[in-house]
Amino acid sequence: MAGVTKNDRILAGEVRKLSLKLIAKYLNDESEANDKFRKDLILKLATNVLPRITQLEGEDGKPIQISISKEIADKNGINETTEVNS
Fold first, then answer.
1. Which string of b and e fits 50-63 if b means at least 16 CB within 10 Å?
2. Containing structural domain, residue 32
């Protein structure tokens, strides 16, 4: 079996970019019709992607601040601004 080719890596990169763009689109869509899908997507990402946020630092090593709209915060019972410490 042949090894991974440059074309395979390029295609994999394109698929990752497309996937991330679609995920961002659905996470940014605050319509009621999208609520269940967005919540399900966040739950799915929570086990893989979100824990890795703690591995990052903001400017000058300060904690990263994540802000969301007041409407989303109230709907989900969370704070509007949260600091992520590494």
1. eeeeeeeeeeeeee
2. 1-48
